Amino acid sequence: MQIEVAKRLQHTDEYYFSKKLREIDELNKTGEKVINLGIGSPDLPPHLSVIKTLHQYASLPHTHAYQSYKGAPALRQAIADWYKRFYNVRLDPDNNVLPLIGSKEGIVHICMTYLQDGDEALLPNPGYPAYAAAVRLSGAKGIPYVLSAENNWLPDLDALAKSDLSRVKIMWLNYPHMPTGAAAPAAFFDEAVAFAKQYGILLCHDNPYSFILNDRPASLLATEGALDVAVELNSLSKSANMAGWRVGMLVGTEARIGEIMRFKSNMDSGMFLPIQMAAAEALAQGPEWYEQLNDTYRRRREKVCQLLTMLGCVYDRQQVGLFVWAKIPDTYASGYVLSDKLLQASRVFITPGGIFGDGGNRYIRASLCATEAVLEQAHERIANVWGS
Ligand SMILES: Cc1ncc(COP(=O)(O)O)c(C=O)c1O
């Protein structure tokens, strides 16, 4: 039977990594296993007390029922406490916080709540592809804004202000920025809030990387006036090593949370309570948790940088987050060409920057989610082909 997919899916392809992982699986059947430095999926476990909490709550007889649509009070309180402790943002756990099944679903919820045919949304190029996909699914039009190394990967708000913003309803922002690893100075957040106010645009800030190799974790909501014009997504995937658990959060005004709940509560029926209680435990960890995590990532980053240097790439040492974003040598037509050559010749996969938008065409992105031993093995394989 032929059945046509809905119009909203006609320009939405399968997610790049979903296809690429299938290709890697096929390659794995033919010999030496591919070393995958493509995806930012933490390989380390969460804190032991998080696992114990999950186990403890899962062992109880009455924790298996449907849960509240707005999240368990203990998790909402833990999110509010975490925002106060690390970002100095005061949130009311009853009204300003919505736990999510990972922050990725929040991207879709926000777009489906506010956007429709005829609307426009500003999107970072390069940027996380899920923003553009969610905007497309909503029926609205994505308007890419260019990020460049020359501008420290920050949007040029003055240039944007000169464009027609009459149909723009939301602007996606993401600092520390993925894939470039750029952090935003506080002054930029002030400017973004003023811009949003002036043009009546909702800032949607996606903030999953603030604790990774970043000296100053920051929330956009700490900026004066931000709560009026912004919502923020956050995640336990990277900073608590809980990517597979699927726990994220949306924070914003009571009005925004209520509007987004109108969409979300029709999609799912709350998260498994033991996962919520374990997430609350993860958020209660002190700064030492992030320090030990970053010690590991710092050592790995050194190795990843050595490997990228061997490939002739150049990169900024001040980067933040779970990746190293590196400019490829002029001898390659694009990051795709180098990535494919690496996969075929060395069986190492590094993400081509072009999947994040054409602004990333001359870059590749290497993940820090591999042990030092695996990185040394990758180094050896690459040295066999690229070493002199
Ligand atoms: C910029 C950015 N936002 C959001 C996400 C999704 O995170 P989560 O696991 O919370 O859905 C990712 C995951 O890679 C990401 O890189």
UniProtKB/TrEMBL annotation:
Cofactor: pyridoxal 5'-phosphate
Enzyme Commission number(s) from the entry: 2.6.1.-
UniProt-listed CDD domains: AAT_like
InterPro entries membership: Aminotransferase_I/II_large, LL-DAP_aminotransferase, NHTrfase_class1_PyrdxlP-BS, PyrdxlP-dep_Trfase, PyrdxlP-dep_Trfase_major, PyrdxlP-dep_Trfase_small
Domain Aminotransferase class I/classII large: 33-382
Recorded GO MF terms: transaminase activity
PROSITE patterns named in the record: AA_TRANSFER_CLASS_1 (PS00105)
Keyword terms, alphabetized: Aminotransferase, Transferase
Enzyme class: transferase
Domain of life from the UniProt record: Bacteria
Family designation: Belongs to the class-I pyridoxal-phosphate-dependent aminotransferase family.
Protein's name according to its UniProt entry: Aminotransferase
